[in-house]
């Protein structure tokens, strides 16, 4: 059996490969990446794979039985790119696709949900067996803000008191690996999130506790937060989108308490305390 991993040189993809190598032979794994040379350090076979090159994808999927489709990072292009992969997978005879979607994609107000839902619908219409991993937010999305918070003396955002049940990339990668080697997960949709939710005020308090510096959380309006992000160098459109994510968090779009992720991986998800400690290290 061959397992293909798209985006295998990305931050999530590399971790998935590591977790799969703990569970199955490296000879059964294939990195599907734009530049196979960048995958040489993974210790598995690498094949050229560009979501945009629809005519060439099927050849790269030759012999692949199980495929992990890690969602593209090109927001606005994802629906087309993912459909290219799904069509190629059908042509190549891929038996099962596991897709990384968005937490509560069918009800989320996040702008990201539309493309994920379109991909889920394309999978359902494809005739290929599939599993949906609706991943919540990465904790790293927030711990990446720690240096700025320390420099500025406050953590800023527009998430108000929204509850965020994030998990680390390692947690999500382990779930993907667990699913990919056991086809009993076929046909299922998993809502994956961290065990314990927190607010951005909780995150600020944890940063304060671990650094010994008083770092308050300062809640801004969506417009003011977008302006602040622009001041940090983000393009206007990107800043507005990131600010909208926080508003989604305020609406609890990033919250789930089903603990399906820890049930899949067989242990608790990484705590906020551990994640902050690692980020500070």
UniProtKB/TrEMBL annotation:
Pfam families: NAD_binding_10. Residues 7-143 form the NAD(P)-binding domain. It comes from the Bacteria. CDD domains: TMR_SDR_a (cd05269). InterPro entries: NAD(P)-bd_dom, NAD(P)-bd_dom_sf, NmrA-type_oxidoreductase. PANTHER family: NMRA-LIKE DOMAIN-CONTAINING PROTEIN, QUINONE OXIDOREDUCTASE 2. This is SDR family oxidoreductase. It comes from Sphingobacterium alkalisoli.
């Amino acid at each position: 059996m061959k397992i293909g991993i798209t985006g295998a040189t990305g931050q999530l993809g590399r971790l998935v490969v590591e977790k799969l190598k703990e569970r199955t032979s490296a000879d059964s794994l294939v990195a599907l990446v734009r530049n196979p040379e960048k995958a040489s350090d993974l210790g598995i076979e690498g094949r050229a794979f560009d979501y945009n090159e629809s005519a060439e994808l099927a050849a790269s999927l030759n012999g692949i039985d199980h495929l992990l489709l890690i969602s593209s990072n090109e927001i606005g292009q994802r629906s087309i790119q993912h459909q290219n992969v799904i069509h190629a997978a059908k042509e190549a005879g891929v038996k099962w696709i596991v897709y990384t979607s968005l937490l509560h994609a069918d009800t989320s107000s996040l702008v990201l949900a539309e493309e994920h839902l379109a991909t889920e619908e394309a999978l359902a219409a494809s005739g290929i067996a599939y599993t949906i991993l609706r991943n919540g937010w990465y904790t790293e999305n927030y711990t990446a803000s720690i240096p700025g918070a320390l420099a500025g003396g406050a953590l800023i955002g527009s998430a108000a008191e929204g509850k965020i049940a994030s998990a680390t990339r390692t947690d999500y990668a382990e779930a993907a690996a667990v699913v990919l080697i056991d086809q009993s997960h076929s046909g299922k949709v998993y809502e994956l999130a961290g065990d314990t939710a927190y607010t951005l005020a909780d995150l600020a308090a944890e940063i304060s506790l671990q650094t010994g510096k008083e770092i308050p959380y300062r809640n801004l309006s969506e417009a003011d937060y977008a302006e602040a992000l622009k001041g940090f160098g983000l393009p206007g459109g990107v800043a507005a989108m990131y600010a909208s994510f926080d508003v989604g968090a305020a609406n609890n779009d990033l919250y789930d308490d089903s603990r399906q992720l820890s049930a899949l991986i067989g242990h608790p998800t990484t705590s906020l305390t551990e994640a902050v400690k690692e980020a500070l290290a």
